[in-house]
Amino acid sequence: MQRAKLRKNYKFLPDIATADLAYEAFGKNPSELFENAGIALESVMVDLTTITAQSIKEINIKRNSLGNLLTSFLEELVFLKDTEQILFSTILCDVNKQGKSWTLNCKLGGEKIDRQKHKLGVDVKAVTKHLFKIEKLPSKILHCQVVLDI
Amino acid sequence: MQAVLLEKFKELEKDIWELPKSYDKGMLVPLRVIATQNLLREMDDGAIKQGINVAQLPGIIGASIMLPDAHWGYGFSIGGVAAFDLKRGIISPGGIGFDINCGMRLLTTNLTEKEVRPLIERIVNELFDAVPAGVGSAGAVRLSKKELKEVMVKGAAWAVEKGLGWEEDLRQIEEGGNIKGADPDAVSERAIQRGINQLGTLGSGNHYLEVQRVETIFDKETASELGILENGQVVVMIHCGSRGFGHQVGTDYLNTFESAMKKYEIKVPDMQLACAPIDSPEGKRYFSAMAAAANNAFCNRQVISHKVREVFSRVFGKSSQDLEMNLVYDVAHNIAKIEEHKLPARNATHSDAGRPITNHKSRFRSVMVHRKGATRSFPGQPVIIGGSMETGSYLLMGSGGAMEKTFGSTAHGSGRTMSRTKAKSMLRGEDLQMKMKKRGIYVKTASFSGLAEEAGIAYKDIDEVVTAVSTADISQPVASFKPIGNIKG
Prior knowledge:
The structure holds two protein chains of two kinds.
Chain A: E1 10-12, E2 21-27, H1 30-45, E3 55-63, H2 66-83, E4 86-98, E5 101-112, E6 126-127, E7 133-136, E8 142-149
Antiparallel strand pairs in A: 1-2, 2-8, 3-5, 4-5, 6-8, 7-8
Helix pairs in contact in A: 1-2
Chain B: H1 3-6, E1 10-13, E2 16-19, E3 31-34, H2 37-42, H3 45-54, E4 60-74, E5 76-85, E6 90-91, E7 103-112, H4 113-116, H5 120-130, H6 145-154, H7 156-161, H8 189-195, E8 208-217, H9 220-225, E9 233-240, H10 243-263, E10 276-277, H11 281-316, E11 327-332, E12 334-344, E13 362-372, E14 375-376, E15 382-385, E16 393-398, H12 400-405, E17 409-410, H13 420-426, H14 429-438, E18 442-445, H15 448-453, H16 462-471, E19 475-488
Parallel strand pairs in B: 3-4, 18-19
Antiparallel strand pairs in B: 1-2, 2-3, 4-5, 5-13, 6-10, 7-9, 7-11, 8-9, 8-19, 12-13, 14-17, 15-16, 16-19
Helix pairs in contact in B: 5-11, 6-11, 8-10, 10-11
């Protein structure tokens, strides 16, 4: 996995959802948007520089809209954190439209949580739908806004 | 809050404010806020907007209620209460929270601060090892799928049956630690997978396990009945919920309800308020799954209590019975329940629906009360309001006033005023830990950035929150506590 997605194409929003955590992410295309939104979520839970891509996972999801696909993808990252105790620092997404559906093929690189080695952040409980949006900006850049339950 | 919005509120009685339903054409009932004038003025616009949104939900009764600790969450504000008609009303995961039955638990000891303080580092370190905390933590109690399904149905009693608690604990838990109607078949395989290794874990965010000393006793007689006997007595407070299990139940049904809303032609102002009629198959199924998650949370806090008792027993060389580590109470603050409340008679004028429920036309009805970041406050029932780790917490008693004004509900905490992102940008967790140690509070954390997010400056003044609930007579203070040791997830 070549693309270590540590560059910041996401931003946390301090003035939204006081108790939880809001962020926005950007991408030139849906695949890049998903990668940045996923990395933003992971960065809430761990200092990404302390995670290496030792364990590789692949996920495939199909949904009826790009928005639903994005929330399902982020929910899957939260699910893997609890069920397999894996956090990811590398995310490669391939998002495509197939007829009326949107599909995601994603490769994730990360590590099983090690409290001695990893600098942990806070646990993400869930991906909410509060103020969720996905849109194309006038600059043609794709933008999403996500509020996480902490 | 913006001045233009603030001036629309009318004070019905001291510290009870109302925004009339005429404020927004979609509102079916008024918005009622319990707060001091200062807390009302400081409340986020986002939270007030959420209270207004809740006032628009089908079948809402009386008023959309916000408590003095209310702040901007998702769907409902945190610190929000709403009751719904069982026939015409809805049930919404956004009115409960993903962390179903997040709640508070308080244990006594017969130890004094003088006895505990010299050993506080050992106690906290051992608690930190015994009760896993933080991102993705897994518990010491390993369950089979069959056992997890038993937990869903039996709640705290499952742990007591396994020797992880005392029979008398069950009498000191809301609903006896078991919400009726739980159905494991309404719970997804994904929720089971997330929950199966997390029993006995604290979680993260604002969850904590805290060793505290009694600071002030306000009501000696009631405090004594609850086992709070003198200033300096050491108690243990636990704040956590249903962990990944409950979070997944919330996630699953939020998605289910999105499509159910089309079927039932329900429109909501925020997708996080996705809901279904209480009486619908989807609504009933969610209630059964929610009850299963609530029981999981009661059991989780029971297992943690057992671990706490083991640690104290080991450190002090006495049994937990000899240390009188009795359960004062365990109360939920993220839940929906069917309860009987006094409401205006059906033939009362529509405007009666927004008034304090004290008129002669009142009668009792069963309603679905949603409490999100809100504590049940029935007369004679202990209430635990957890503060920030720097400022302390309160034990209160429920009151008759709550039954008349807030569907038997009161505040749950001090309430955030500052976002996590902002708090983290203002101070470092490592510095905060040192500062707290100097002030006599030994903190062990799974995350320094998480610690910074929970700093006292990020919260409202808990004393003012308690003043508001006391003045409005929705609960009355019994005792206050200050931390001496704390575990943060």
